[in-house]
Amino acid sequence: MKQIILGTAGHIDHGKTALIKALTGINTDRLKEEKLRGITIELGFASLTLPSGQHVGIIDVPGHEKFVKNMVAGATGIDVVAMVIAADEGIMPQTKEHMEICTLLNIKHGIIVLSKTDLVDEEWLELVLEDIRDYMKGTFLENANILPVSATSGEGISQLITALDDICALVPKRQSSGIFRLPVDRVFSIKGFGTVITGTLISGKIRTGDTIMIYPSGIKSKIRGIQVHNKAVDIAETGMRTAINFQGLDKASVNRGDVLANSDSLISIYMIDVFLQFLSTNPKPIKNRTVIRFHSGTSEIFGNLILLDREELLPGESTSAQLRLESNLVVVKDDRFILRSYSPIRTIGGGYIINPIPGKHKRFKKEIIEGLKIISGDKHDQIISYQVKQSLFEGISFSKLLIMTNIAEKQLNNILQGLMSKKTVIQADKENRIYIHDDTYNDFKQQTIDFIENFHNKHPLKTGIYKEEFRSRFSHIQNLKIFNFMLNNLTKGNEIIQEDDLIRLSTHTVSLALDQAGISKKMLEIYSNTKLTPPYFKELVKTLEIDHNQAKDVLILLIGQKKIVKIKENLFFHKNAVDKLKNELVDFLLSNGEITTPQFKNIAKVSRKYLIPLIEYFDATNITIRVGDIRKLRNKV
């Protein structure tokens, strides 16, 4: 059975609490001060089973203007509103403000309860009914039933219950993104049980024994027990009024406005992008950087309104904007919010979240304003594609997309598969489900080709660029997995070739000019003839009477062609001479098991100036391993 939350709304002393007691027998005013003053200050809770068997959770909200913030907290998660208007007073200021709040929160179902009918005559009743119908024109309650009732005499209560049953049948089952979220509206302790947290479970589900996180503090705790409508259950689901008992959780560590969710499923931030509707009833425009009171879920946070495309917003206008708040919060896309003015305090607007984890925007940037238009729409593939593209080389994870789209996991996965089949989106990290945009990959591809091509033009005799040098050029790509994925993709596409520790374009070939070919031939002859006693490179350059840089370019080419071996800085050998010595060394070790430096000298027949660099080269290339004063053969040789 679907879960339904009924919430009251209306002006102070219009009989909301009395109405709930007449319906359920429960007095939702639980505080001593509430009973003494006869007004509702805090949220009250009750439940009702309708004739059809539909179970309804009820939230009673305060009507006094001083407690509208509590009313907003209670209105979160309401499916059906009972707008209570006293017959003896009619529409009053908080009737209007509560209507504005319900409209901004996108509540679509409701009834109008005309209370205290026992206090007026028929003629007055007709005047009030006419006034209500006029006021409700153009609102979501325009065609709602208006039900006259008296909580004192009981008149109209049975008709109200029937009307509630009818309207609850029209309420669709809640859709959930799958992320468990419960905004906290009450925290209290029960002796022998510990800390209890209550709230309306707005998405996902939770089980006894689960470990949850309290946001934004990050505190974790394990669920000891769950109650729904005062009955113990093992599982609570979307739409349920839920009370959760925790193990070892200090009451002082949780506050109204906090959110319960699975560990690391949400992201705490102080900036959000929103679509804002500024009420037409406002007396004057709102200016950029105005201090506001932001209400979402059960939280109230001060912040600044940043208008991105104008200096002020006129009454009745709407726009995309950024809110920068004084403390962190957690929200997901499409969460509804209310804005209230700093002073005097009144509701001035509201809307929905379009980006719950944005960057800090510069004002009047065309691309930002256009982007916000895209993600404030309802085309899921465009929203996902845009958010992936905005993530650039960092990429965006599947779990982050759940927050930024508020789409159910299965549906999100299907849309991503479709975008990948069109090659709009690429999965760059399968293990962590991280995606990049095709434009980002193509940007990397072009930068890579341009950079390596420029390197080849500057160093035509070098086979390629060292990977370390190449990586330093792209140090702005922090995610190494994404960097390697893109690089390997270019290799698979035959755009580049990776050989050992070098990278080159697949089209690059080294060709020597006539004079360079001559230098190459002379170098090889000298290294070949001198075998294990070659000249140091500086001496070689003097002997050949050639330019040092030109000689170095040719030498690097010969090393890349594996004709010359670098033993240490400025000392190079012909590969044949090194290979011959290596074979003699390995044969000796296979026969004797170990070798001393004097024994190695007998094999190489060279002076110490060559001997030490050669034996250290064999250590460095994993042919030998030094143990004290001797060398042994490494196992893998």
Can I get a quick summary?
By secondary structure, the chain is of the alpha+beta class. It contains 19 helices and 35 strands.
Q: What features would you describe in this structure?
A:
- By secondary structure, the protein is of the alpha+beta class.
- The chain folds into five domains: about 5-170, P-loop containing nucleotide triphosphate hydrolases (Rossmann fold, 3-Layer(aba) Sandwich); about 180-260, Translation factors (Elongation Factor Tu (Ef-tu), domain 3); about 270-370, Translation factors (Elongation Factor Tu (Ef-tu), domain 3), CATH 2.40.30; about 380-500, Arc Repressor Mutant, subunit A (Orthogonal Bundle); about 510-635, Arc Repressor Mutant, subunit A.
- Helices cover about 35% and strands about 30% of the residues.
- The protein has 19 helices and 35 strands.
- The strands form nine sheets. Strands 7, 8, 9, 11, 12, 13, 15 and 16 form an eight-stranded antiparallel beta sheet that branches. It has a six-stranded mixed beta sheet with strand order 2-3-1-4-5-6, with helices on both faces. The chain has a six-stranded antiparallel barrel with strand order 17-22-20-19-23-24.
- Helix 14 crosses helix 16.
- The longest helix has 21 residues, at about 440-460.
- Mean pLDDT is about 90; it is low at about 30-40.
